[in-house]
Amino acid sequence: MPNVARRYPIMLNLQNRVAVVVGGGRVATRKTRYLLEVGAKVIVISPTLTNELHNLSNQGQIEWHQSNYQRDLLNQFMPMVVIVTTDDSQINQMVVQDSQRIRALVNNAGAGTESDDFDNMAHVEKFPITVAVSTHGQAPMFTHQLKQVLETAIGDEYATLATWLGDARPVISEAIETQAKRQSLYDRLVQSSILDLLKSGQTDAAHQLFETIINKEVTQ
Q1: CATH number assigned to the domain comprising residue 65
Q2: Which of 13, 56, 124, 211 could serve as 61's disulfide partner, Cβ 3.0–4.6 Å?
Q3: pLDDT by position in tens, the chain (length 220)
């Protein structure tokens, strides 16, 4: 097996943070779309844009810097995150170097290298649940298959239960003093028939059971 550096998986908060995308093609469009979904302030540097990116620029959802990338151009924007998507390896490497000089996290989506800082992992999102998977670049097609497995395994019922658990968390934390007891309650909730009821469309019955289990514990 190749000597591949292991990377640290994180969930990065980009709400109202500046993110720069270098390139205006199909990959840049996909990256920009998701950056907007997580609340980033997106600046796209490219002489041309796809129709979708043009529309986003015209709507004021992104800022378009209409030019080829030049050395140290990032200094104008001081982004937290940079994603470079061009098909020019020299430009890509320049962007990586400039990003690291200003301590911005950079991903070379045009051709990932050991010199960039992060990868965009394949993920399944059914908010508030996000599950990501990576093969560290060794088997991209297998990563795609694993994502499909996760999409099948994690139904909407899991997202519903996760939302209910989040809503109940303050009450549970206040009423149950120890972490061990709280974990025991969460285990009972997950191992109950709540997920099965949700999967079969019996949402009211599932929520009634959810509240019954919690009330029984917090009133003891």
Answers
A1: 3.40.50.720
A2: 56
A3: 556 778 899 999 999 999 999 999 999 999 999 999 999 999 999 999 999 999 999 999 999 999 999 999 999 999 999 999 999 999 999 999 999 999 999 999 866 556 889 988 999 999 999 999 998 878 889 999 999 999 999 999 999 999 999 999 999 999 998 999 999 999 999 999 999 999 999 999 999 999 999 998 887 6
Kindly state whether residues 7 and 99 are assigned to the same domain.
yes
Nearest to 195 by CA among 154, 153, 161, 151: 161
Residue at 162 is within a domain: yes
Question: How many CB atoms sit inside 10 A of residue 193's CB?
Answer: 13
196-to-149, 200, 204, 215 alpha-carbon distances in Å:
19, 6, 12, 20
- Name the one residue in this structure whose structure tokens are 């019922």: 157
3-state helix, strand, coil in the chain (%, to 5): 50, 15, 35
Token representation of residue 188: 């009972």
Number of domains in the chain: 2
Same domain assignment for residues 16 and 110: yes
**Of 52, 46, 55, 48, which Cα lies nearest the Cα of 21?**
46
- Say how far apart CA 111 and CA 96 lie, in whole Å: 11
Does residue 143 form part of some domain?
no
Q: Write out the residue range of the structural domain in which residue 162 sits.
A: 156-218
Output b/e per residue, 105-136; b: 16+ Cβ within 10 A: bbbbbbeeeeebebbebbebebeeeebbbbee
